[in-house]
Write a structure and sequence with these properties.
- The protein has about 400 residues and is of the alpha/beta class.
- It has twelve helices and 18 strands.
- The chain has a domain of about 220 residues: FAD/NAD(P)-binding domain (3-Layer(bba) Sandwich), CATH 3.50.50.
- The protein is about 35% helix and about 25% strand.
- It has a seven-stranded mixed sheet with strand order 5-4-13-14-15-12-16. The chain has a six-stranded mixed sheet with strand order 7-2-1-11-18-17. A three-stranded antiparallel sheet has the order 8-9-10.
- The protein is globular and about 60 Å long.
- The N and C termini lie close together (about 10 Å).
- The structure holds flavin-adenine dinucleotide.
- The site of flavin-adenine dinucleotide has 33 residues, from helix 1, strand 2, strand 3, strand 12 and strand 16.
């Protein structure tokens, strides 16, 4: 095949994975990132078996320096009563497979390792994209670049989407803000059999806690509040106040955290798009389908998008055919998970006590194997088969 060129807008997880996958299949790639460096925020990210298959398809193997999630734990109410309890040695590991909570920086570094430095341009905000015959042209602060393929991997407020999908609805505030904490493993969680690895649901809020490695843990919390808020005396003080009456070890873990460990972001989702492809331009990740974090699948889907796009565009000689197939494969799957995630967030954040009691009773009555099977349903994804060209 003649040399083919791709410009990738955005050097986050989705963009770097697309760059890695296309570079691996012989494309000449250039990644334009608006930030001054290719970096990720200091937070954890759940990486499920579907994402590990996507990573393998773009050339990344290994455990990302993280230990498996499949430990004793489950889902509790804020008083500490188990709603769904799992045992390390039984169902949980079987259903979650090789899932880990990795540090985002480690995931991004593993992707950056697959893309030569000369292909990456930091400090280059893209302003717009337009078609030029069968090709596309990207305008950035320093000029223009044209390519056979442009990948919009520029997140929930995508400039690529604004250029070519002008009728797309803007991102919507999901009703919750999220805090994320990466911190040293506290004393209460040091025992090998510690049972509090769990997501805990309370009135209008969630607190989650998972091991990342021998010496670090990842916590996240959400609360139903108006957008744009800030803790008046800092986010850690805000968290300690909000979660002080929640069950052990949440207050103790927050007591051991430090203010610099805490990140806060409002959660936005993107209303569904009618297409992920326009001519030689394809959207991946949050630019196409930003979803609420309740399934822990947003980033995993960005990786799946990148793997599917690079397998199809990398091996199908007719790019238009490859991109049509990309849209057909990715839109139904990501939009189904988007819906499930939104529903999961609504169910997790119920406020009225009678509704919460009823929800917990229903979940307790569901056979554990059925609960785990439904949770694990997204994990069976595999990348499209490579098309063999002569
Ligand atoms: C609280 C929270 C918890 C989450 N937890 C999980 C989880 O556990 N597991 C999971 O799989 N997912 C999770 N997600 C979702 C996940 O973070 C996103 O789906 C993922 O980061 C999307 O990756 P992306 O590369 O598409 O977009 P982004 O990560 O947003 O990256 C976009 C990149 O494009 C750059 N950019 C933007 N505009 C421009 C421009 N005009 N020009 C050039 N560059 C530009 C940005 O600087 C950025 O580097 C969570 C999300 C939140 C909010």
């Amino acid at each position: 095949m003649a040399e083919r060129t791709a410009v990738i807008v955005g050097g986050g997880i989705g963009g770097m994975a697309a760059a890695a996958g296309l570079h691996r299949r012989g494309w000449t790639v250039r990644v334009l990132e608006q930030a001054g460096a290719f970096t990720e925020v200091g937070a954890g990210i759940s990486v499920w078996p579907n994402a590990f298959r996507a990573l393998a398809a773009v050339g990344v193997t290994g455990s990302l320096g993280a230990g498996p999630i499949g430990v004793a734990g489950g889902l509790r109410d804020w008083r500490g009563r188990w709603i769904v309890r799992m045992d390390d040695t039984t169902d949980a590991t079987r259903h979650t497979g090789a899932a880990v909570v990795a540090h985002r920086a480690q995931l991004l570094d593993a992707l950056l390792d697959q893309v030569p430095p000369e292909c990456r341009m930091a400090g280059v905000p893209v302003r717009a994209v337009r078609h030029a015959g069968h090709r596309a042209v990207v305008s950035h602060d320093g000029g223009e670049l044209d390519a056979d393929l442009v990948v919009g991997a520029d997140g929930v407020r995508s400039a690529v989407r604004s250029s070519l999908w002008p009728d797309a609805a803007p991102p919507v505030y999901a009703g919750q803000t999220a805090w994320r904490i990466v911190m040293p493993r506290p004393e209460s969680q040091a025992a090998p059999g510690a049972r509090a690895w769990a997501e805990t649901w309370g009135p209008g809020g969630v607190f989650g806690m998972f091991p990342m490695s021998q010496d670090r843990i990842y916590c996240y919390a959400t609360a139903t509040v108006p957008p744009g808020g800030h803790g008046p005396d800092g986010e850690l003080a805000e968290l300690r106040r909000r979660f002080r009456d929640w069950c052990d070890p949440i207050p103790a873990v927050l007591a051991a955290a430090r203010p610099e460990h805490v990140l806060r972001n409002d959660i936005y989702y993107l209303p569904r798009l009618p297409a992920y492809v326009d001519g030689p331009v394809a959207l991946v990740g949050d630019a196409a389908h930003a979803m609420t974090p309740n399934l822990g699948q947003g980033g995993c889907q960005a990786l799946e998008d990148a793997a599917a796009l690079s397998v199809l565009a990398g091996t199908e000689p007719d790019l238009a055919v490859a991109l049509r197939r990309y849209d057909e494969l990715r839109r139904p799957r990501t939009q189904q998970l988007w819906r499930r995630s939104l529903l999961g967030g609504t169910v997790a954040h119920l406020v009225p006590a009678p509704l919460r009691v009823a929800r917990n009773a229903v979940l307790r009555a569901v056979p554990r194997s059925l609960f785990l099977r439904s949770l694990a349903q997204p994990f069976s994804w595999r990348p499209p088969a490579e098309i063999v060209t002569k």
